[in-house]
Amino acid sequence: MNSRRLFALAFLILLASAYGQTLHQTSGPWVMEKSGTRAGLRGIHAVGGGVGWASGTNGTALRTEDGGYEWQSCAMPPGAEMLDLRGIWAWDENTAIAMSSGPGDQSRLYRTTDGCSHWTLLYTNPDKDGFWDAIAFHGKARGFLLGDPVGGRFALFFTLNRGMTWERVNAPGLEAGAARIGAFAASNSALLLDGSGLPWFGTSGPGGPWLYTGGMSCSMAHAQTDPAGCLRSAMAFSREELPLAGDAASAGIFSLGADAGMVDAVAVGGDYGKAAQTAGSAARWRSQMGQWARAAQPPHGYRSAVAWDAAAGAWIAVGTNGSDISYDDGRTWQTLDNGNWNALSLPWVVGPNGQIAKLDPDRLKR
User: Fold this and answer.
1) Helix (H/G/I), strand (E/B), else coil: 4
2) How far apart are CA 344 and CA 357, in angstroms?
3) Cα separation, 201 vs 323, whole angstroms
4) Torsion of CA 265, 271, 276, 278, to 10 degrees
5) 85 by DSSP, 3-state: which?
6) Exposure b/e, 119-154, CB count within 10 A at least 16 = b
């Protein structure tokens, strides 16, 4: 009987390891959860109330309704067997949009309204030379979709009906110019919507780490009565170079984050080809400063995602060689762990080989 129990225990450990990670194993403040997959995960969205969605390679999508105690494997979106679902955005336990990233028509949007039992193809990239990088929504209906430059301009689309239909943004200021720049689809967070629901996005590549900021010259009344018209004709973008690592195809801005009031914002990145390089991996912006400043003590390597933890009053950043935390508005960072992570939507973090972990606030460094 003892030998049978030992065999059963060994089998369970091997099974858990084979499907993402060992249950309840910890890495710094992160507690591993069983994902049931070995897919590389880059999409994660915490909805609240214990609901979360994740996505990754080979058309993989996952969902939890119980705070991560159990992650459900979703049905495969039609024709997505070879697609990389780099981003996912959800409204509740039933409704979500998954974004695949790839050249041309390999960039697609799928929608589910029945808890991922079925998916519908919503939209396919109309640009044969395009590549989608990130999707984000503001409130229940307005959303933006970001893609690499096509014909010298960043591809940006908007929706006002939860992604059911999309329209291209033709605003001035989206030009990439002669710079060899794009955006990274590393964590679905190169795109950020500000407090008014207008897009900011970060770029990467040899042309430098630029931040594009959207603005709108539209009255409040006009914006309320004709939001589509304002987005079509009253938007414009400005850009500024941020003090992050650049001058390489593998370097630049990978993620943007802001606190609830847009008082503070943080940009992280660096060079994913030099994961341990700390210089130029984080910059911060404060509304009262009005400018971006490089972190005095940066994270301990390249970072692909950043998020504000309101409960802890801190910023958390993750990347392929670990995670870090900042309690002083992104000025200095402390190491949390040395794991391998891709994307972040608190309390969850995801990575390669089906890794999903949940933040244990009691294990945070203070």
Assistant:
1) helix
2) 10
3) 22
4) -40
5) strand
6) beebbebebeebbbbbbbbeeeebbbbbbbbbeebb
Q: What is the mean pLDDT of the chain?
A: 93
pLDDT-derived band at 86 (thresholds 50, 70, 90) equals very high
Chain centre to alpha carbon of residue 146: 12
- Rounded to two decimals, the pTM is 0.92
Rounded mean pLDDT, 82-96? 98
Asked if residues 163 and 170 have their Cβ atoms less than 8 Å apart, the reply is: no
Q: Which residues contact 338 (CB under 8 A, 6 or more apart)?
A: 27, 28, 321, 322
Preceding amide of 227 cis, omega within 30: no
Which of 174, 149, 74 has the alpha carbon at shortest distance from 116?
Answer: 74
Closest CA to 267 of 251, 236, 243, 290: 243
Q: How confident is the model at residue 142, as a pLDDT? A: 96
What would the pLDDT profile of 245-297 be if each residue is shown by its tens digit? 988 999 999 999 999 888 899 999 999 999 999 999 999 998 877 899 999 99
Q: What fold is seen in the domain 35-360? A: Methylamine Dehydrogenase; Chain H (2.130.10)
Query: What letter does residue 74 receive in the DSSP assignment?
Result: P
Number of helices (H), then strands (E), in the chain: 3, 29
Model confidence at 72: pLDDT above 90: yes
Work out the average pLDDT over 204-228: 90
Structure confidence at residue 241 (pLDDT): 95
β-strands 314-319, 305-309 pairing: antiparallel
- Using CB atoms within 10 A of its CB, is residue 216 exposed (0-12), middle (13-18) or buried (19+)? middle
